Automatic annotation (TrEMBL):
Keywords: Autophagy, Glycoprotein, Signal. It comes from Cyprinus carpio. This is DnaJ homolog subfamily C member 16. Residues 564-575 have a biased composition (Basic and acidic residues). PANTHER family: DNAJ HOMOLOG SUBFAMILY C MEMBER 16. GO terms for cellular component: endoplasmic reticulum membrane.
Length: 781
């Protein structure tokens, strides 16, 4: 019972779907869409189509239904302009394109009358694997096939790929357009591919295709998406836009000589196509793309008055397209072809037979491999007649004589070529190993045969050199005749190095063109809101900008470099000799540049430059002293800070507190918590504070200071018991003087450790609202 209910349910759903599709098909009438009668002529249909297509084009008409209407108009025009499709519609009311699912007109038409169904009854009208169009099966792509075949081949011809899937309703409607487009593009040599998302998810993700149906093109390994209404004209234009710009040059009477004479610089034959259409035909662009490495292409529009002289000069028949190929002779074409319906096979054969000049210059290894292929079989043996010459004007006569000899050659086993010795010096050194390696006064001709791909050759230099005389020509022809009878005359062997690529300098220009095409593609994606494909690129750009901006901000607002010195830098350099034994033996990682310490006095003259306007990140280390202690403290100060003089951000000064005591007191008011010194002696404020031996690290830009207070670590001579009882007064005076001197000397014993903490940025900082002036001098009392 349940199976019966399920069967009836499936049947009803299928009937409803089929009725809906039949009704939608019945509603479509190409005559009504175009507004013409059934007896309308082709001229009337074409005229109406142009008017309606212009009116309903989605780019000009903002009506939401414009795109659907434009598709109907195009579809109607395609039916009514095709005699076979029009006759089928007039007779049966439908064509293969208008019939639902593209099947015959039997089946369900009889379902209601006879209530029967065949095996196609349960075959739903979707693009499933079993019902996939057989024509598309030969275009199906797999991931490995795409990587190994399509991508390399896309450098010779573009590919148009359709993205489809099972249960894709929209794919059914575009199928007729796709078939007709593929049929025309294949005749032009364009690659076709179909990717089923359901079975090739990996390839679809690789291509960036996330919706069905969609179309994309592949050229030079790059992927571009189709964004317009699916009609044949748009797809054809899309494929044409895939091709790089500047493939074909427009040639007129003014620039034809410049175009043809560039054969020497480009080392390529030049081909001219004469036709009456104003734009370059797609077939010719595709040919230019396929042979861009071998031939330079130009196009002559016969309808322009600026090309009349060219037509008369080469006696061009204006009733059929004509193709001329020019080699070294720019006045006379080397070959010509003329046909009213020029096919791809004819053009390919014509270009393949004229890929090289009569005597091309060997500019890279690829050209050498093709001109002088490796010997494989006895019957396919090829000999290369190579002229080693120079670029100077003095070699022109010999080069022209060699070219005339190459022009007269009709033997297919002989290939003529030349090299510039200065540009291919390694190659010439091997072939001329018995001669002077400098540029020869006369040219040299070498006959060679390649034996394997590793560079091994058999060769024979033609004796006597080459200057283009009749004797030289006769001698060379005799050698070539002997070679045909006895190949063993090539009695020298060598291994040739790989040729230099003389066109490497053009890489920058090609890179600029590639970047321009890539930028145009990005702009096109942005204009069509193809955000899914563009999002990774935008994310990368914004990430790079964020990192760059963040780096600038961090550098602008970070602390000075001396505050960020790592601890390892402060522990690598050793202390100067004679330093305090209690201090660390490491300091700045930079070794001192001088064998002395430069210490300047801080006065009202140097005050501004050494403190107030000190550069950001720089610190001035100031020793406070008096006139009596000046020599002792400066000597000790120099020893303690010597190992830090390699830092570019440290400056060293001293301040005479006898002259600037008021300034010292004003600055230290902001470091009251550090000034808890001599409390036993100055509780009542009866005695002036002793600043001798203090060291200040002053950051003039950020207005803060770090304070070093002297700590006595030496031996206290006053505490020693006197050896002689009583002692004289003069003896006590001498001992007290020595004790005072030693105590002053030891005030800076811990300065080295304090400097290390300064470089590490771990010292407490005392900020000053504004630096006090140093113009007042304290009067000594």
């Amino acid at each position: 019972m349940r199976m019966m209910v399920l069967l009836l349910s499936v049947m009803m759903v299928n009937v409803l779907l089929m009725d809906a599709m039949v009704e939608s098909t019945a509603e479509f009438d190409p005559y009504k869409v175009l507004g013409v009668t059934r007896s309308a002529s082709q001229a009337e249909i074409k005229k109406v189509y142009k008017r309606l297509a212009k009116e309903w084009h989605p780019d000009k008409n903002k009506n939401p239904e414009a795109e659907d209407m434009f598709i109907k108009i195009t579809k109607s025009y395609e039916i009514l302009t095709n005699e076979e499709k029009r006759a089928s519609y007039d007779r049966y009311g439908q064509t293969d394109n208008t019939h639902p699912y593209g099947r015959g007109h039997h089946g369900f038409r009889h379902f209601h009358d006879n209530f029967y169904f065949d095996e196609s009854f349960f075959h739903f009208p979707f693009n499933n694997k079993g019902g996939r169009d057989f024509a598309d099966s030969k275009y199906t792509l797999h991931f490995n096939q795409y990587i190994s075949e399509v991508v390399p081949d896309s450098f010779k011809r573009p590919y148009l790929i359709k993205i489809t899937s099972d249960w894709c309703f929209s794919c059914i409607h575009i199928e007729p357009v796709w078939k007709e487009t593929v049929q025309e593009l294949e005749t032009l040599g364009i690659g076709i591919g179909v990717v089923d998302v359901g079975y090739e998810r990996r390839l679809a993700n690789h291509l960036g295709a996330h919706q069905t149906p969609s179309f994309l093109g592949v050229v030079n390994g790059k992927v571009a998406f189709f964004h317009y209404a699916v009609v044949k004209g748009h797809l054809m234009q899309f494929v044409e836009d895939l091709l790089p710009q500047r493939l074909v040059e427009k040639v007129t009477d003014k620039n034809n000589q410049e175009f043809l004479k560039s054969w020497h610089e480009l080392n390529k034959p030049h081909v001219l196509l004469f036709d009456q259409v104003p734009s370059v035909p797609l077939l010719y662009k595709l040919t230019a793309f396929a042979y861009k490495d071998y031939v330079q292409f130009g196009y002559v529009d016969q309808g322009l008055s600026e090309t009349a002289d060219l037509l008369r000069k080469f006696n061009i028949n204006t009733y059929a397209p004509t193709m001329l190929v020019f080699k070294e002779d720019v006045e006379k074409p080397a070959d010509i072809i003329q046909a009213k319906g020029m096919k791809k096979q004819i053009i390919d054969e014509f270009i393949s037979n004229n890929k090289f000049l009569l005597a091309p210059r060997l500019v890279n290894q690829k050209l050498f491999d093709e001109l002088c292929p490796v010997k494989q079989f006895h019957r396919r043996r090829k000999y290369c007649v190579l002229l080693i010459t120079g670029e100077e004007e003095s070699f022109a006569t010999g080069n022209e004589a060699f070219l005339s000899l190459a022009s007269a050659n009709t033997n297919d086993v002989l290939r003529f070529a030349y090299v510039y010795q200065r540009r291919q010096q390694p190659l010439c050194d091997v072939l001329l190993k018995n001669k002077d390696s400098t540029l020869p006064q006369v040219d040299q001709v070498v006959i060679l045969e390649r034996r394997n791909g590793a560079g091994k050759i058999l060769y024979k230099p033609v004796s006597g050199g080459w200057n283009g005389s009749k004797e030289d020509k006769h001698k060379l022809l005799e050698e070539l005749e002997r070679l045909q009878k006895d190949p063993s005359i090539l009695n020298n062997d060598a291994v040739l190095p790989e040729l230099n690529n003389e066109f490497t300098s053009m890489f920058l220009i090609r890179w600029i063109y590639t970047a321009y095409d890539y930028l145009a593609e990005i702009i096109d994606d942005l204009l069509h809101n193809n955000w899914r494909e563009v999002m990774p690129l935008l994310s990368l750009i914004f990430s790079a900008l964020f990192i760059l901006f963040g780096t600038v901000v961090i550098q602008a607002f970070s602390d000075s470099s001396e505050e960020k010195q790592p601890k390892t830098k402060a522990k690598e350099a050793s202390k100067a000799e004679n330093g305090s034994p209690n201090t660390s033996s490491t300091s700045s990682s930079r070794p001192p540049k001088k064998n002395f310490v430069e210490v300047t006095e801080l006065t009202d003259i140097t005050y501004t430059s050494n403190l107030v306007k000190l550069r950001p990140g720089h610190i001035n280390v100031v020793l406070v002293l008096t006139d009596p202690t000046k020599n002792i403290l400066l000597s000790k100060f120099a020893k303690e800070v010597y190992s830090f003089t390699g830092s570019f951000t440290l400056h060293f000064s001293f301040l005479n507190v006898d002259k600037h005591g008021e300034w010292m007191a004003a600055v230290l008011e902001y470091a009251q918590d550090a000034m808890q010194i001599d409390t036993d002696e100055d509780e009542a404020g009866s005695r002036k504070l002793d600043y001798t031996g203090y060291v200040l690290a002053l950051n003039g830009h950020k207005k803060y200071l770090c304070l070093f207070k002297p700590v006595y670590t030496g031996e206290d001579l006053d505490s020693k018991p006197e050896e002689e009882g009583g002692g004289s007064r003069s003896r006590k005076g001498t001992t007290r003087s020595r004790s005072t001197t030693l105590q002053i000397h030891h005030k800076l014993d811990r300065l080295g450790l304090w400097m290390e903490r300064l470089m590490e940025g771990t010292l407490p900082r005392y900020y000053v609202p504004a630096w006090p002036g140093l113009d007042k001098i304290t009067v000594n009392k």
